[in-house]
């Protein structure tokens, strides 16, 4: 796995990189082999990394929700972030907080009012 791409994938999980910038990094490293329609609000990273590499924890959720509360990211960006983490195998959760992580990701992705 390309270390620049993995770093970008990790930064996206921490809300330190936008989807557009994640796609830019992957495109710079993979060239035309990376296919993404810019009209879509998420991207499948399976072609870049088909196996789990970035563990998502409750801290990731807390950071994203705090950034939303501070209006550093929009509600749409928060929803898209959660959806990206759910649909891409590069992201995974396990351990004691796995159930909490997947529950919150699903709630956010579905735009439920509980958060």
The poorly predicted ranges are none
Can you list the strand order of the major beta sheet?
1-2
Number of domains: 1
Number of helices: 5
Task: Categorize the overall geometry.
Answer: globular
Our estimate of the beta-strand percent is under 5%
Query: What does the largest sheet look like?
Result: 2 strands, parallel
| Element string (H = helix, E = strand) | HHEHHEH
Global mean pLDDT: 92
Cα radius of gyration in angstroms: 14 Å
How far apart are the first and last residues' alpha carbons, in Å? 35 Å
* Overall helicity: 40-55%
Category by helix and strand content = mainly alpha
Compile the SSE list and pairings.
Layout: H1 3-13, H2 19-30, E1 54-55, H3 58-69, H4 75-87, E2 91-92, H5 98-109
Parallel strand pairs: 1-2
Helix pairs in contact: 1-2, 4-5
């Amino acid at each position: 796995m390309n270390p620049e791409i993995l770093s970008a994938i990790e930064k996206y999980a921490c809300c330190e990189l936008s989807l557009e910038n994640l796609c830019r990094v992957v495109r710079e490293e993979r060239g035309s082999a990376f296919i993404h329609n810019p009209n879509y609000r998420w991207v499948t990273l399976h072609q870049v990394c088909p196996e789990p590499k970035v563990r998502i924890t409750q801290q990731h959720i807390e950071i994203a929700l705090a950034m939303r509360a501070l209006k550093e990211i929009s509600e749409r960006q928060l929803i898209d972030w959660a959806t990206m983490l759910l649909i891409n195998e590069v992201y995974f959760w396990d351990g004691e907080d796995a159930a909490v992580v997947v529950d919150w990701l699903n709630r956010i992705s579905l735009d439920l009012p509980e958060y």
